[in-house]
Structure of phosphoglucomutase (alpha-D-glucose-1,6-bisphosphate-dependent):
Amino acid sequence: MAAASSATAIPSLDKVDFLKLQNGSDIRGVAVSGVEGEPVSLTEPVTEAIAAGFAAWLLDKKKVDASRKLRVSIGHDSRISAQKLQDAVSRGIASAGLDVVQYGLASTPAMFNSTLTEDEAILCPADGAIMITASHLPYNRNGFKFFTSDGGLGKNDIKDILERAASIYSNFLAKGYSVKASESVKKVDYMAVYTSDLVKAVRKAAGNIEKPLEGFHIVVDAGNGAGGFFAAKVLEPLGAITSGSQFLEPDGMFPNHIPNPEDKAAMKAITQAVLDNKANLGIIFDTDVDRSAAVDSTGRELNRNRLIALMSAIVLEEHPGTTIVTDSVTSDGLTSFIEKKLGGKHHRFKRGYKNVIDEAIRLNSIGEESHLAIETSGHGDLKENHWLDDGAYLMVKLRNKLASTRASGKGVGSKVLTDLVEGLEEPAIAVELRIKINQNHPDLKGRSFRKYGEAVLQHLGNSIASNPKLQKAPVRVSGFGGWFLLRLSLHDPVLPLNIEAPSHEDAVKLGLKVAAAVKEFQALDTSALDKFAQP
């Protein structure tokens, strides 16, 4: 089936700095107008050039002979710009002579999975996959994640693709650009395959019982993202009751709350749903279902450090002594829990889901066994699942534990999960403060917010080195019985500051050290930090 086409030519194109669209190992930009100060950067021509750049990169990577056409699968989340960008991506891929397979509404983990599935009847495996998503960012944003059977692409790959895209876009500028029909587009319901595989995984873990979750009441909050499938397509076939599930319908304006397991309003919504419906468990996903969290029957949130502790307990039962790789803002109590109670090893690494995945893979390559890489944000990746960043699979692991424990007669309900994190020391004070960078302030002196933020971090590092009360660790700074980490956001002109301390007084001392070190950077809005540090 051919994609929709138009003969309308676009007479002029704006010049674009493609490298500014890089967001670590993703591409992000503004796809919808209407927000002041945020001009559209992901236009259809830009998107088409990026897709063609990926196609060229893939052709070089695969080095196949002319007898076989490469195949690229394309999926998207619920954003209002999804269809427009999917069509542009399809044109870009097809223009390079590759076959296009559209999945429509899909999840990020399903897109990676499509490069592993072997079933020619559904045009799998795909040689490459593209997920159109901007995770939990506002409705006007969108972006792209890229996969091959080796996993998600890294920063250098993204830079390569964007450089190729810039060259292709230059041809558009020189020769003119028009929207042309894509003749080699097919459509497949791949989500049906992906969800069936999740159902099989739970049944297998429960000893091949058809309905291992029968009698469990589990509510799902998809936040109007792409995760609504989990209730009807995964939980119900396993026997679970899903009444009270909410915001399952895709709506790219996200009218109820941000689809983000780290967002307080989102977690409050799923907690309330659990309590109102007297459910055994609640599950919440982000927009593209690569992050997740849970809530037990008492309303206790199982996210951030608690989710990591829970997954660590499950994985260490299966792989005693293994190394758990986490991001840098995990608590000291979590380290003690993993190492002293569970008998594992906690390896803290820098933030970024691709960073923790790559670090776990690296550790395995040098002989240090690791089976779990997980961030406080809810990104979780298991070696058994091809290091796939999959929020739905994390929740399947929890379902597996519930089902297998009941099948063995050892316990029923979410208390099984809550008991697994018993003994986890919670930090007395744990806060995240956002220090914004005013991009219009003259102190930037023509620099990008990223360059300015890097200068702030460099200056802070120099300040710490000369302060005897602070100790710089590989990923954060310790002092006054706690620690802080100031980093630069991948997405926005913001420096998030995480502080954990044994008391509010000690947390304030750490905050004041940061405030003193960055006070000369006049483009910083430190109001959140100033308010926190007030006596």
User: Anything to note?
Assistant: The chain is about 35% helix and 20% strand. The first strand starts at residue 9 and ends at 10.
